[in-house]
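Much of our argument rests on the idea that a fold can be written as discrete symbols. This step matters because it turns folding into a mapping between discrete strings. The record that follows shows the chain in one-letter code together with its fold in token form.
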Amino acid sequence: MNKMDLVAEVADASDLTKAKATEVVDAVFAAIEGALKAKQEVRLVGFGTFVTATRKAGTGRNPRTGETIKIAESSSVRFKPGKSLKDAVN
């Protein structure tokens, strides 16, 4: 499923036009993104939790040359599915 498929599902389920459903989906994504940028956890009960995680800086090795390189600290988003979502998938 891609974003347009999701928009179509939302439009059908809520009797909205596709244009209005697109606005709703974009607003939800923007709200999640904004909270994650502010380092807040986004917990959707029954669905799951989005949280930012920081990976510490470290050293690695270039596989081509064998040279040791520094790997900078980075942030990523992690998702932990909720019980209802896990049960629905299994």
